[in-house]
């Protein structure tokens, strides 16, 4: 779905409903089901951020284009959040390993666990002498 946002900020429920051509009750339903979590103003008005709108676009894509029901959307969003968290953890681990490797490499000229080797010596085999074949058949 193409992005329909123009600027950063917070949007009221009526503006969001109009932008995405959905009923405000649909947005309230998504909030009740835990799919969206808009912030609230001091007057308790729902305010949707740019991140909320990105999430809404994803939800609408699942519902409109792929026909996923609300329970399915909830499962997909939960799996997506878990995958993003796992990705952050993996990136943290990769950064840690990279830092440790660089630290160990800087501490010693020969990396730990590796044994220095002499360069290989290539020995040519002696030339072989062949007997000439005779043209006789037996």
Give your account of this protein's structure:
The chain has helices spanning 13-19, 24-32, 50-65, 70-107; strands at 11-12, 39-40, 46-48. The protein has 138 residues and is mainly alpha-helical. Strands 1-3-2 form a three-stranded antiparallel sheet. The radius of gyration is 33 Å and the shape is elongated. Mean pLDDT is 86; it is low at 1-6.
Which percent band covers the strand fraction?
Answer: 5-15%
Oligomer: single chain
What order do the helices and strands follow?
Answer: EHHEEHH
Mean pLDDT: 86
* Helical proportion, percent range: 40-55%
* Class inferred from helices and paired strands: mainly alpha
Radius of gyration: 33 Å
Low-confidence runs:
1-6
Topology diagram in text:
Layout: E1 11-12, H1 13-19, H2 24-32, E2 39-40, E3 46-48, H3 50-65, H4 70-107
Summary?
This protein is mainly alpha-helical and 138 residues long. Helices cover 51% and strands 5% of the residues.
Features:
138 residues, mainly alpha, three-stranded antiparallel β-sheet, 4 helices
């Amino acid at each position: 779905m193409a992005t329909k946002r123009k600027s950063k900020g917070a949007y009221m429920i009526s503006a969001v409903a109009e932008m995405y051509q959905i009923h405000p009750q649909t947005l309230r339903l998504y909030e009740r089901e835990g799919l969206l979590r808009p912030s609230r103003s001091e007057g308790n008005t729902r305010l949707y951020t740019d991140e909320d709108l990105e999430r809404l676009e994803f939800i609408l894509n699942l519902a409109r284009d792929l026909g996923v029901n609300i329970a399915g959307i909830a499962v997909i969003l939960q799996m997506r959040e878990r995958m993003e968290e796992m990705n952050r953890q993996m990136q943290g681990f990769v950064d840690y390993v990279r830092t440790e490797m660089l630290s160990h490499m800087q501490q010693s000229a020969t990396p730990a666990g590796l044994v220095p080797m002499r360069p290989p010596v290539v020995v040519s085999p002696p030339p072989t002498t062949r007997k000439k074949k005779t043209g006789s058949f037996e």
